[in-house]
Automatic annotation (TrEMBL):
Name listed for the protein in its UniProt record: Leucine-rich repeat-containing N-terminal plant-type domain-containing protein
Organism for this UniProt entry: Daucus carota subsp. sativus (Carrot)
Leucine-rich repeat-containing N-terminal plant-type domain segment(s): 31-69
Record-annotated membrane-spanning stretches: 811-831
Keyword list, A-Z: Cell membrane, Glycoprotein, Leucine-rich repeat, Membrane, Receptor, Repeat, Signal, Transmembrane, Transmembrane helix
Length: 858
C-alpha cells in the first residue's frame, strides 16, 4: 500500500504544487494586496483608497478601482479623477503579471513613468492621461506587446518619441497629445498597422510627415496632429487612409499644396488644415468628400477660386475658408449647403454678389464675409435667417440700404458688423427688435437720418460703433448696464451730451468717442466712483463750460481729447495725476492761466502726446510735465495702450491676443508719435536746456508764444526728433550747430525770431529751405540770401558754449511762419479706427477651437 500510495502522493503533490506555484511565488492575491497597500502608503493623499487595507485583504477584488479575473488576481486597476497625488516609483509592477488595464487619468501623478512598467507584460490598456508626469516615454515600452490603447496625453512628457513604440504593433489607439514631446515621428510608426486613432496634438515635434507613414495605417479613422510642429508637404499618400473620418493638421508649418488625393478620403467628416502655409488652389476633388460636415482651411495662402464642387458637400455644417487669397465669386450653387450653420469666407479677395440662395440657409448662425470685394445690395432674404447670431460683412463694397425688415426675424443676432461699406439710407428701425444685440458696428458707411431712440432699449449692447456716417439729430440714450464701447464719432449729431453716459454707478463705459459732431452744452458732472473710462474723446464739437472735477476719478483714462471745443477753464490741477494718461489734447479751446500746478510725485507718468496748442495758457513752460519722455528713452519701453476688456464672454480667451494686436498699432502711434505741442499760447520765459533730455520726443512745437532766450544746444541730444518748430517767438542767439546732427529732423521752422549769426551747414541741414529761417534779420549764410562776413564771427569751433550776448536785438515780427503739419492726426486716426470688431473675430477663432474640441469629444 505504501508503495502504491507513494507515487500517487507524489503526483498529488506535484499537481498541487504546479497549480499553486505561479500564484504563490509570483502573484498571490495577498502579495498583490500588500503591493497595492505599499504603494498607497507612498501617496500624499490616499483617502480615496481607504478600502485598500491590510485588514481587508479578503476583499481585494472589491477594493476601490480593482477588478479581478476569475483566478481572483488583479486584472484591472482603474482610478479616475480621485485626486491621487504621488508617483508610480513604488508601484511593484512585477506583482501584477495578469494586469490588462491600468487607467489612472485625471489624477495628480508626478515623477516619471517607471522603468518597471515593462514588467506588466499583459497590459492591453494603459491610460495615464491628465496627470503631471514628466521625463520620457520609456523605451522598454516595447515589452508591452499586448498594448492596444496607450494614452499619455496631457502630462509634461518632454522627450522624443521612442522608436520602440512602433513595435507595439497591436496598438489601435495612441494618444500623446498635450505634452512637450520633441523630435520627429519615428519611422517605426509605419509598423502600427492596426492603429485606428492617433492623437499627437499640442506637442513640439518636428520634421516632415513621411509618406511611408501613411501607407500602412489603413485602419486609421482619426488623425489629430494639430499644433504639433510638423513641417514640409502633406504627402499625397495621405489619400491611402481611406477609413479616415477625421483629419486635423491645424496649426503646423505645412506648406505646398493640398494633394488632390485628399478626395479619396470619402469617409471624412472633419477636415481641418487651417493655420498652415498651404498654397495653390483648393482641389476640386474635395467635392468627393460626400460625408464632410466640417471643412476648415482658414489662415493659409490658398488662391484660385472656391471650387464649385464644394457645393456637393451637402452635409456641410461648418465651412471656413477665411484668411486666404481666394478670388472669384461665391459659387451660387453654394445654396445647396442647406445644413450650414457656420460660413466664413472673410479676408479673401472674393468679388461679385452674395448669392441669393444664401437665404436658403435656414440653420445659419455665423456668416462672416468681411474683408472681400463683394458688391451689391443685401437681399431681403438675409433678414430671414432666423438662427443668425453673427453677421460680418464689413470692408466690402456693399451698397444700397439695409433691408427694412432687418432685425425683425433674428432674435438671436448678437454681433452685426457692416462697417466699411457704402450702405446708405436710414438706420433700420426694426433693428431695435434684435434684442440680443451685443456688438453693433455700422461705422464708415453713408447712412443718414436720425438714430431711433429705441436703440437705447437694446439692453445687451456692449459695443456700439456708428462712427463715420451722416447721422444727425440727437443721440439715443445708450446707457444700458453693459455698454462698454460707444463710438458715434464723425457724424452730425447734435444736442446735449446725455447725463447718463457720465453717471458711473452701474454703467461700465470704457471708451466714449464722440469726436467730430455738433454736440453742444457742457460736459455733465461725473457721478459715481466706478468710472472705468480709458478713452474720452469729444474733439471738434461745440462743448463749452469747464472740465468736470469728477473726471479726476477716471483713473484709467489713457486718452483724453477735448480739443477743438469752446471749453473755458484753467488747467485742471489733477490732470498730471492721472496715472495712465498717454494722450492729452486740449487744443483750440479757451484754456487760460499758467501750468504751475502743485506738483505730484511723477506728473504725467505715462504721457506720450500732449497738445495744448491754440489756447491762452501763459507763464513759463511746464518743463517738469515731460519727465516721462526722459524715462521712455532710457528704458525703451514700448508699453501699449491697454484696453483689455473686463466684459463678459470674450475677456479670458482674447486678452493676450488683443493686447498683442494693440501693441502693433501702438508702436505706430504712441511710440512713433511722441509729441509736445504748446504752440499758439502765451508762454513766456526761456526754453530750459533740460529739454534735451527728452530723448524720445519726435515732435516739438513751441511756436507762436513769447519765448525768449537761446535755442538750447542740448536739442542736439534729442536724436529721434523729426519736427521742430520754434517760429514766431522772441528767441535770440545763434542756431546751435548741434541741430545739424539730428538725423531724423525733416521739418524745421525757426522763422520769425531774433536769431542771428551763421546758419549751421551740414549734410542734413542743407535740405531746409529759407522758409525755415525767414524773419530773422540777423541770420546769414545759405539758404538765406545774407552773406556772413568771416571777420564778424568767431571761428566755428568755438561756437558751442559761447554766449551770444553781442547780437543785435531787433524785434522783428513778420506774421505767421509756416505751420507744422502735425504727425499726431495721422497716428491718432489709426487708433480711432481700430475696430472693436477686430477682437471679436479673434474670439471667433477661439470659438472654432472650442467647437472643434466639442465635436471631437462627441
Ligand atoms: C464584493 O461586493 C459585493 C457587493 O457589493 C458582494 O456581493 C461580493 O460578494 C463582494 N465580493 C467579495 C469578493 O468580497
Ligand atoms: C473592505 O473593502 C470593502 C470593499 O471595498 C469596503 O466596503 C470595506 O469598508 C472595507 N473594510 C475596511 C475595514 O476597510
Ligand atoms: C515586487 O514583487 C515581486 C513579486 O511579487 C517580488 O519578488 C519583489 O521583491 C517585489 N519588489 C519589491 C521592490 O518589493
Ligand atoms: C499635486 O502633487 C504635487 C506634488 O507632486 C503637490 O505639490 C500638489 O499640491 C498636488 N496638487 C493637487 C491639486 O493635489
Ligand atoms: C522587472 O523589474 C525588475 C526590477 O524590479 C527588473 O530587474 C526586471 O528586469 C524587470 N523585468 C522585465 C521583464 O522588465
Ligand atoms: C518595424 O520597424 C522597424 C524599425 O523601424 C523596422 O526595422 C522594421 O522593418 C519594421 N517592421 C515592419 C514589419 O514594418
Ligand atoms: C476600413 O475599416 C474596415 C473595418 O472597420 C476594414 O474592414 C477595411 O478594410 C478598412 N478599409 C481599408 C481601406 O483598409
Ligand atoms: C457634384 O454634383 C453634381 C451633381 O449634383 C455632379 O454632376 C458632379 O459631378 C459632382 N461633382 C463632383 C466633383 O462630385
Ligand atoms: C442635414 O442634416 C440632417 C441631419 O443632420 C440630414 O438628415 C440631412 O440629410 C441634411 N441635409 C442635407 C441636404 O444633406
Ligand atoms: C433656394 O433659394 C432659391 C432662390 O432664393 C430658391 O429658388 C430655391 O427654391 C431655394 N431652394 C430651397 C431648397 O429652399
Ligand atoms: C431688457 O429688455 C427686454 C425687452 O427689450 C426686457 O424684457 C428685459 O427685462 C430687459 N432687461 C433688463 C436687465 O433691463
Amino acid at each position: 500500500m505504501g508503495t502504491f500510495n507513494k507515487p500517487l502522493l507524489l503526483v498529488l503533490f506535484l499537481v498541487v504544487f504546479i497549480s499553486i506555484l505561479p500564484l504563490n511565488i509570483v502573484s498571490s492575491p495577498t502579495t498583490q494586496g500588500e503591493a497595492l497597500v505599499k504603494w498607497k502608503d507612498t501617496l500624499f493623499d490616499s483617502s480615496p483608497l481607504n478600502s485598500w487595507s491590510l485588514n481587508n485583504l479578503s476583499n481585494l477584488c472589491n477594493w476601490t478601482g480593482i477588478t479581478c479575473n476569475t483566478e481572483g488576481t488583479v486584472s484591472k486597476l482603474q482610478i479616475y479623477d480621485q485626486g491621487i497625488s504621488g508617483t508610480l516609483a513604488h508601484f511593484n509592477f512585477s506583482s501584477f503579471p495578469s494586469l490588462t488595464s491600468l487607467a489612472m487619468s485625471y489624477n495628480n501623478l508626478s515623477g516619471s513613468i517607471p522603468v518597471d512598467i515593462g514588467n506588466a507584460t499583459q497590459l492591453q490598456r494603459l491610460d495615464l492621461s491628465f496627470n503631471n508626469l514628466d521625463g520620457n516615454i520609456p523605451s522598454f515600452i516595447d515589452q508591452l506587446t499586448e498594448l492596444q490603447q496607450l494614452d499619455l496625453s496631457f502630462n509634461n512628457l518632454n522627450s522624443s518619441i521612442p522608436p520602440e513604440l512602433g513595435l507595439c504593433t497591436k496598438l489601435n489607439a495612441l494618444n500623446l497629445s498635450g505634452n512637450s514631446l520633441t523630435g520627429p515621428l519615428p519611422y517605426s510608426f509605419s509598423n502600427l498597422t492596426r492603429i485606428s486613432e492617433l492623437s499627437l496634438y499640442e506637442n513640439h515635434l518636428s520634421g516632415e510627415l513621411s509618406p511611408q507613414l501613411f501607407t500602412k495605417w489603413t485602419e486609421l479613422t482619426s488623425l489629430d496632429m494639430r499644433y504639433s510642429g510638423f513641417s514640409g508637404n502633406i504627402p499625397s499618400e495621405i489619400g491611402m487612409l481611406r477609413n479616415l473620418t477625421s483629419l486635423d493638421l491645424t496649426g503646423n508649418d505645412l506648406e505646398g499644396t493640398i494633394p488632390k488625393e485628399i478626395g479619396n478620403l470619402n469617409q471624412l467628416q472633419i477636415l481641418y488644415l487651417s493655420e498652415n502655409h498651404l498654397e495653390g488652389s483648393i482641389p476640386a476633388t474635395i467635392g468627393n468628400l460626400a460625408k464632410l460636415e466640417s471643412l476648415f482651411l482658414y489662415n493659409n495662402n490658398l488662391s484660385g477660386t472656391i471650387p464649385p464642387e464644394v457645393s456637393n458637400l451637402t452635409l456641410l455644417e461648418y465651412l471656413d475658408l477665411g484668411n486666404n487669397q481666394l478670388t472669384g465669386t461665391i459659387p451660387h450653387d453654394i445654396g445647396r449647403l442647406i445644413n450650414l450653420t457656420y460660413l466664413d469666407l472673410s479676408n479673401n479677395q472674393l468679388n461679385g454678389i452674395i448669392p441669393l440662395e444664401i437665404g436658403n440657409f435656414t440653420l445659419l448662425q455665423y456668416l462672416q464675409l468681411e474683408n472681400n470685394q463683394l458688391v451689391g445690395e443685401l437681399h431681403d432674404s438675409i433678414s430671414h435667417l432666423t438662427m443668425l447670431r453673427k453677421l460680418g460683412l464689413s470692408f466690402n463694397r456693399f451698397s444700397g440700404s439695409i433691408p427694412t425688415d432687418f432685425g425683425k426675424y433674428t432674435p438671436n443676432l448678437s454681433h452685426m458688423n457692416l462697417s466699411g461699406n457704402n450702405f446708405s439710407g436710414e438706420f433700420p428701425q426694426t433693428l431695435c427688435k434684435a434684442t440680443s444685440l451685443q456688438v453693433l458696428d455700422l461705422s464708415s458707411n453713408e447712412l443718414n437720418g436720425s438714430l431711433p431712440g429705441c436703440l437705447g432699449n437694446l439692453n445687451k449692447t456692449i459695443v456700439v460703433n456708428l462712427s463715420k456716417n451722416k447721422f444727425k439729430g440727437t443721440m439715443p440714450m445708450f446707457c444700458t448696464t453693459n455698454i462698454a464701447i460707444l463710438d458715434l464719432s464723425s457724424n452730425m449729431l447734435s444736442g446735449a451730451l446725455p447725463r447718463c453716459l457720465f453717471t458711473y454707478t452701474n454703467i461700465k463705459l470704457i471708451i466714449l468717442d464722440l469726436h467730430d459732431n455738433q454736440f453742444q452744452g457742457t460736459i455733465p458732472q461725473i457721478i459715481g466712483n466706478s468710472c472705468e473710462l480709458t478713452t474720452f474723446n469729444i474733439n471738434n464739437n461745440h462743448i463749452e463750460g469747464s472740465i468736470p472735477l469728477g473726471l479726476a476719478n477716471c483713473k484709467l483714462l489713457q486718452i483724453l481729447d477735448l480739443g477743438n471745443n469752446k471749453i473755458k477753464d484753467s488747467f485742471p490741477s489733477w490732470l498730471p495725476t492721472l496715472p495712465q494718461l498717454q494722450i492729452l489734447v486740449l487744443r483750440s479751446n479757451r484754456f487760460h492761466g499758467n501750468l504751475s500746478v502743485k506738483m505730484t510725485e511723477r506728473p504725467f507718468s505715462k504721457l506720450r502726446i500732449m497738445d495744448l496748442s491754440h489756447n491762452q495758457f501763459s507763464g513759463n513752460l511746464p518743463i517738469n510735465f515731460f519727465d516721462n519722455f526722459k524715462l521712455m528713452a532710457n528704458s525703451d519701453r514700448r508699453v501699449g495702450i491697454n484696453t483689455s476688456f473686463t466684459i463678459g464672454l470674450y475677456y479670458e480667451a482674447s486678452t493676450s491676443l488683443v493686447v498683442k494686436g494693440m501693441e502693433l498699432e501702438v508702436k505706430k502711434i504712441l511710440y512713433i508719435y511722441t509729441s509736445i505741442d504748446l504752440s499758439s499760447n502765451e508762454f513766456t520765459g526761456e526754453v530750459s536746456e533740460v529739454i534735451g533730455e527728452f530723448k524720445s520726443l519726435r515732435l516739438l512745437n513751441l511756436s507762436h508764444n513769447s519765448l525768449t532766450g537761446h535755442i538750447p544746444s542740448s536739442l542736439g541730444n534729442m536724436s529721434l526728433l523729426e519736427s521742430l518748430d520754434f517760429s514766431s517767438n522772441r528767441m535770440t542767439g545763434m542756431i546751435p550747430r548741434q541741430l545739424s546732427t539730428l538725423e531724423f529732423l525733416s521739418t524745421l521752422n525757426l522763422s520769425t525770431n531774433n536769431l542771428s549769426g551763421e546758419i549751421p551747414q551740414g549734410r542734413h541741414f542743407d535740405t531746409f529751405t529759407k522758409d525755415s529761417f525767414l524773419g530773422n534779420l540777423a541770420l546769414c549764410g545759405a539758404p538765406v540770401t545774407k552773406k556772413c562776413k568771416d571777420d564778424e564771427f568767431p571761428p566755428r569751433e568755438a561756437d558751442d558754449d559761447v554766449d551770444y550776448i553781442w547780437f543785435d536785438w531787433k524785434m522783428i515780427l513778420i506774421g505767421y511762419g509756416i505751420g507744422l503739419v502735425c504727425g499726431l492726426s495721422t497716428g491718432y486716426i489709426v487708433f480711432t479706427t481700430l475696430k472693436p470688431w477686430w477682437f471679436v473675430s479673434i474670439i471667433e477663432r477661439a470659438q472654432h477651437k472650442l467647437i472643434r474640441r466639442l465635436m471631437m469629444n462627441t
